[in-house]
Every structure is written in structure tokens, then in C-alpha cells.
Amino acid sequence: MQIRPIESGDNEALAKVIRTALAEFGANKPGTVYFDPTTDALYELFRTTGSFYYVAIRDEKVVGGCGIFPTENLPQGTCELVKLYVAKEARGTGLGKQLMEQSMSWAKENGYTHVYLESMPELKKAVSIYEKVGFAPLDHPLGNSGHDGCDIWMLKAL
Q: Is pLDDT of 78 > 80?
């Protein structure tokens, strides 16, 4: 398994991993990244200052990814952990946790003090992993992600 920064040729494969995973868990609903047009242009999205995206490759195939994004209107020093998805054939290997930890390390090294994330009940396995690495639940969203289909909000100090 190789983890590397996103490249311009990764867009289509990443969009497929993300949308396939959301459909598998019944989370392919309006107000989520499933319908977000930026899902098809992640390389371009992650050219934004203060952002970074890691891609996991196995056997020359994209099998997952995770990133950090300076979502609009988040508190000072806070970034958002975004688009953490792993293809079915790579789940259960610790890859998701590895991608998340690498992303949070990047965030800390780049001056962020807190990481925020949004999720949904359909992704309860992911939510349990977030809790295990120290994310605490919030009773309201932060910032302006544009994903009003998410109703789980969490925050972690770095």
C-alpha cells in the first residue's frame, strides 16, 4: 500500500471510490458529497491554500483518500477532515485510520489546532473510529461545508 499526495489523474477514480462507498451504506442522499460537484474535481479543489489530500494506492489502483480543508467560517485554527473514503476491498486493514492520522499530522504541522468533521448515522463504523481517535461530538455544525445532509458533527484538538 502506498499513500501519496493527490495527482491530477486521480479525480475519476476517487469520485468512484467515494460515491460507491456512500451508495453501499445508503448514504447517497442530497446534501452530501455524493452530489457535490467538487467530488469530480478533487485535485483542483485541493489546490486551495491550507488544504491537502492523501490518496491510497494498492496494486496501482486508487483505493482510498482523506484530506484537510480550510472550510469557510470555521473557528480560527480549525480545519475540516474531509472525504475520508476507502474502497470495500481495502476496508478492515487500518487504512482509513492511517489516512486520517496522516491528514491530521499534516494539519498540525501546518498550524491548525483543531480538526472538525461531519458525518451521518449511515456511516456509524467511521463514527466509532473518529471517537476512538479522540473526536468529541458537537450539538451543532461549524463552518459552512454546504453538506446539510450530515447531522453528526465532531471536533478534536490537535
A: yes
**Amino acid, single-letter form, for residue 31:** G
> What are the residues facing 137 on neighbouring strands?
154
Q: Residue 152: what residue type?
A: I
CB 115 within 8 A of CB 155: yes
Residue 43 CA, chain-centre distance (Å), reads 14
For residue 45, name the pLDDT band (cuts at 50, 70, 90).
very high
Collapsed DSSP state (helix, strand, coil) of residue 67: strand
| Helices assigned H by DSSP within 46-153 | 95-109, 124-132
pLDDT digits (tens, 9 = 90+) for 133-145: 999 999 999 988 8
- The pLDDT value recorded for residue 89 is 95
**Phi, psi (deg, nearest 5) at residue 115:** -125, 130
Contacts of 75 (CB under 8 A, 6+ apart): 114, 142
The answer to whether residues 143 and 74 touch, using CB atoms and an 8 Å cutoff, is: yes
More reliable by pLDDT, 28 or 116: 116
Q: What's the CA gap between 67 and 36, in Å, rounded? A: 16
Q: The C-alpha cell of 15 is what?
A: 469520485
Identify the CA nearest to 53 among candidates 90, 81, 94, 22.
81
39 vs 41: CA distance, rounded Å: 6
